[in-house]
């Protein structure tokens, strides 16, 4: 590994098992049958262990929105033209996108990054210009990134998390936007899980059966070109990924090292989660999984991550919208954990032994 990337394998902060056990004990003393609030209890216990406190909370929430173009879009793997990436950058920044509305509704701070939209927009209010290039290479013909570009993308994610922690964030959500990005995400999943493109490839922006078949063939071509037994997860990320996926990978690894809980969004961000855990297995302990995407390949990635997402709303938009949708439930779980009375406090009889 490049010595400048040695930070990727630095140890992650351990989960506070004592705090998690105390949270479990409190849940067992609350005025309800044990386990009767199901996964709401699980949310509070997991956050308590991650945060090392008997008063867990998801707030403040930080969303990192990574926007970039993908060279493979020229292969016709999306219904939308490449210029939509730039148009959506403006839309997200102006507050008109789904994630913008949701971030405002849940009171999250969202940082928006231009990592490499094909056409440089210049300064855009509310957008951090961290351009790595005018989009990635076309993975059906060349590697997505140079080694330098990969290093920069990972570092952008790392620095963004360090800034979030310094500013008091207690929950991280990464989002992405870039026409064609389900293709590199699927290619990465196929390479890491040794599964055929036909099994994992989905409609993305709404492709029909023929479009999905063409997309799977493009991915197969990319895998033939780049997926070699000697290539580890970092090299596969360089060859098959995207700036958005790489930045999210760096963000996840640094978050786990600093003890910042991670709420994993959908299909594309799960590919980054998969890469991150293959590079540094300790990252997995810091992940909560928001939802199951309608993209057919998501289930295989979740299975590989031993993940059981909290929501199944048939969403497939990306942009961190699935993660944002879970935040109100996380808040509710934490409020119940902290404010519900115990049997002793309420003077309620417990179950018979």
From TrEMBL:
Active site: 319
PANTHER family, sorted: NICOTINATE-NUCLEOTIDE--DIMETHYLBENZIMIDAZOLE PHOSPHORIBOSYLTRANSFERASE
Alphabetized UniProt keyword annotations: Cobalamin biosynthesis, Glycosyltransferase, Transferase
Family from the record: Belongs to the CobT family.
Function recorded in the entry: Catalyzes the synthesis of alpha-ribazole-5'-phosphate from nicotinate mononucleotide (NAMN) and 5,6-dimethylbenzimidazole (DMB).
BP GO terms, sorted: cobalamin biosynthetic process
One annotated GO molecular function: nicotinate-nucleotide-dimethylbenzimidazole phosphoribosyltransferase activity
TM annotation in the entry: none
E.C. no: 2.4.2.21
Pfam families, alphabetized: DBI_PRT (PF02277)
Recorded metabolic or biological pathway in which this protein acts: Nucleoside biosynthesis; alpha-ribazole biosynthesis; alpha-ribazole from 5,6-dimethylbenzimidazole: step 1/2
InterPro entries: Nict_dMeBzImd_PRibTrfase, Nict_dMeBzImd_PRibTrfase_bact, Nict_dMeBzImd_PRibTrfase_N, Nict_dMeBzImd_PRibTrfase_sf
Catalysed reaction, written as an equation: 5,6-dimethylbenzimidazole + nicotinate beta-D-ribonucleotide = alpha-ribazole 5'-phosphate + nicotinate + H(+)
UniProt-recorded name of the protein: Nicotinate-nucleotide--dimethylbenzimidazole phosphoribosyltransferase
